Amino acid sequence: MKWYYVLFLVFFIVISALSIYKAITPQNYNSNGIYFEYPGTWAELTPNQSNTSNSSSNSNVVAVGDPNSADTGNIIVLVQKINKSGTLEEIIEASKADLKEDWGATMLSDNIITVDGIQAHDIVYVTDSESNKKERMVIFDKNDIVYCIILGGSASAFDGQKDNFDMIVNSFRVTE
Questions:
Q1: Is the pLDDT of residue 2 over 90?
Q2: Which of the chain's ends, N or C, has fewer CB atoms near its CB within 10 Å?
């Protein structure tokens, strides 16, 4: 075998190993008073990719997702912090009502889970057939701040992301 074939083979093996390593090693977000892990092939998304406006509230929003599908809305995770006004139950009921009115959402489940040692609502819903989204909204409050984690994308891609969504929710911590 010629030396350049061997060199190409070694180069190919190294690049393949690095790609696999990145895919299985989670990244983490640690800013704005929150910490969570997300898949190694994902990235922080720009406001354009995450469909959030350029309002002043964006400092309270972080979005991560698959950069190859974020523009089409396939896989995206948004985290928002808002000051608590009212009870958590009132905020959840208002959120559900807004989803039904604005997006034609149908609630599929509302379970209680634990996030960062706090009880949280884990709500799964689908939107109208036009936008065809399936999303999971995890809401809890800590230190008079309401944290809302929205995990979702196209209905066809949602179920295949369960492990990635669980990684984010299970690793989520309030750091301030």
A1: no
A2: N
CA atoms within 13 Å, Cβ hemisphere of 6:
3
59 pLDDT higher than 70: no
Please count the other Cβ atoms lying within 10 Å of the Cβ belonging to residue 26: 16
Nearest to 151 by CA among 136, 138, 162, 167: 136
Q: What are the distances in angstroms from CA 167 to CA 1, 25, 164?
A: 45, 12, 5
Task: Report the 10 Å Cβ neighbour count for 150.
Answer: 17
Residue 97 makes CB contacts below 8 A (sequence gap 6+) with none
Q: What is the pLDDT of residues 129-160, one digit of tens each?
A: 777 889 999 999 999 999 999 999 888 889 88
> What pLDDT, in 10s, does the model give residues 12-23?
666 655 555 555
State residue 55 phi and psi, 5-degree precision.
-75, 170
